Amino acid sequence: MADTQTIDVVIVGSGPAGYTAAIYAARAGRKPLVIEGLAPGGQLMITTEIENFPGFKDPLAGPELMAAMRAQAQRVGAEIMVDAVEEVDLSSRPFKVKMSSREVAAETIIIATGAEAGWLNIPSEQKFQGRGVSACATCDGFFFRGKKVAVVGGGDTAAEEALYLTSHASEVYLVHRRDEMRASNIMADRVANNDKIKPKWFRVVDEILGDESGVTGVRLKDPRNDETEEIALDGVFMAIGHRPKTEFLKGQIEVDGEGYIVTKPDSTRTSVEGVYAAGDVQDKVYRQAITAAGTGCMAALEATRFLEE
User: Fold this and answer.
1) Among residues 293, 308, 301, which one has the least CA distance to residue 26?
2) Given this model, what pLDDT does residue 210 score?
3) Chunked mean pLDDT (size 10), the chain, 309 residues
4) Catalytic site residue 211?
5) How high is the pLDDT of residue 10?
6) Is 136 designated active site?
7) Other C-beta atoms within 10 Å of 259: how many?
8) Of residues 136, 206, 283, 297, which has the active-site annotation?
């Protein structure tokens, strides 16, 4: 450990939570290190237009917002590395953080690694991401006012996304491989009683159709007999779950049944003193850029107070 640099605040992950934490920690004089991961900027890097982040009169692209946050963090004194954390040791302070190219010691750690949306992993899905394919109805539903969309999934997330989209879209197809939802009874009932939602039972997405302008439809397949049908629509929302990026923690911190880091009420403190969690890695309810930024601010302030004490 004698040759290992000790840093006051190490931020694992980037995106709105990580960069905001870096800004606040740097302004507090803590010279934070941000380990961005191998996909810097998080999920907003595949978001084409953002209209709901305060302070911008006109829509802006997700990568543009992330580049501005990153540059601001660097300007106020944060060190930023494009590297991935392979493992951490949280058994004692200073904590050990091992990357592929470097190992550091951390007096405090802010985990802002986010969560990955579940995808179908078909080429057409990747082709039209940001051009009609989304994994966040509250982020992108506004762009589908008066249009037809499909939601893929059968759990509570799919129900919530479909119900939310009815406030914007003219029709919402709910595509599920079974003949009933896996969602809770109350959510399934709400879906069943909403005239705008049209279930497509025993169906899976075979292909997302489109042209240079974006999504134009979807081809569905019945897994029982491989029969297909095509539906003309303007957007496809994936609602097959999210997976928080916590593998590198290897059971060293308390998580819930879905793998999200558990934080103390009204706080970003975790089960390990000196370790904080911000953004989608601990938030499975809101999953918005602005809420991620807010918890990033909270985490930096709490880490700074912890160091002062």
Assistant:
1) 301
2) 97
3) 81 96 98 92 79 91 94 98 95 96 96 91 93 90 96 92 96 96 92 97 97 96 96 96 90 94 98 98 92 98 97
4) no
5) 98
6) yes
7) 16
8) 136
297 is annotated as an active-site residue: no
How many angstroms separate the Cα of 20 from the Cα of each of 49, 63, 94? 20, 15, 23
- Tokens at 301, concatenated: 């302030």
- Set 139, 234, 280, 283: catalytic member: 139
pLDDT for the residue numbered 1: 41
Helical segments of the chain, H only: 15-27, 62-75, 123-127, 137-140, 156-165, 185-192, 289-308
Token readout for 289 is 């850029």
Taking the C-alpha atoms of residue 233 and residue 171, their distance in angstroms, rounded to an integer, is 9
Helix (H, G, I), strand (E, B) or coil at 192: helix
| Residue whose tokens read 């302008």 | 213
pLDDT at 49: 78
277 in Cβ contact with 299 (< 8 Å): yes
Separation between Cα atoms, residue 232 and residue 215, nearest integer Å:
9
Annotated catalytic residue: which of 83, 89, 140, 234?
140
Q: What is the pLDDT of residue 38?
A: 81
CB within 8 A of 71, min separation 6: which ones? none
The answer to whether the beta carbons of residues 10 and 112 sit under 8 Å apart is no
Amino acid at 116: E
Q: Is 25 exposed, middle or buried (0-12, 13-18, 19+ CB in 10 A)?
A: buried
Nearest residue to 255 (alpha-carbon basis) of 284, 287, 230: 284
Q: Are 82 and 14 in contact (CB under 8 A)?
A: no
Q: How far apart are CA 309 and CA 305, in angstroms?
A: 6
